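[job 4471] stage=fold_predict status=RUNNING
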Amino acid sequence: MSQTETAAPDRRLFGLCLLALGWSVLVLQAGGFTTSIRAGMAFLDWPLSNGSVNPPGWLTEIDKFAEHSHRLAAAGLGLLCVVLAAAHFFREPRRPVRLASYALLGLVILQGLLGGLRVLLDRLNIGGEGNLKAVAFAVGHAVNAQLTLALLAGIALAHSAAWRRPGGAAPASLRRAGATAVALTLAVIVAGAVMRQGHFTAWVSAPGEGLFIPDVGEGAVWWVNFLHRAGALVAATAVLVFAVRLARQGFPTPRWASLVGLVFLQVFLGIVSIRLPLNPHVRTVHLVTGAALFSSLCAAALLARKASADRPA
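[job 4471] inference complete, writing structure tokens
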């Protein structure tokens, strides 16, 4: 391990990362709530809202409030990421961490463009029968949000004491278990994004239906919901297996116990979302918890990868 890896963490950069993480959760919550109440087209223009940063009615009408507050919060996150990238340029000696901060800024810019294209290419703006273009950009916007949050969590981890602290070497199989859990969870996130942005959940959330095998819906609607629900069980199993392996390898309890707790909470929220299909708050919390799980999982997988790399040949 290099001297820069074992040096004391930069508390200012770490604090800045935590601030950005906290703010990004607000952005995600606002975006999730906007989608849950179908308020994504409360304003037909972008980046301004009805040509203004303070459009009439946004403080009194729930759909306008949801969409405009999401845009304002996202703009704030963009500024935070500019500051974060600049701070890493001047203060961070490790090149991979600096590059990660630049990549984060790139993802945030991409996120804004995806959100803008989702609005500008909606059928309310361009006409037509279908809305495939807007939905495709909306799905990309949703998935990129998860990737952005996970990358930010990884950068924060690189400034933590846990990253700098020497640990026992782990087998390569632990790294592979972490990578498998991350890949499966990401696949479930993609399926969930297609469900939410395509509003497929409204077709298969009838009272009395099965929890993991939808009783109503057909074709692509049925398959997307089935893949999301059944895939969630497979991904949850992979995460739990990874958590058990982390525990057996001697990783600190919060590192693996948080994964276990988030998995069970996420499955529970998914079931509640099916039973309460008209409740936007449950769906929003389900989304935010999923992001917390994915980010925590990516951070744990990075630590496992680092421990595997430290293992003697």
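[job 4471] summary: The CA atoms of residues 26 and 80 lie 13 Å apart.
[job 4471] exit 0
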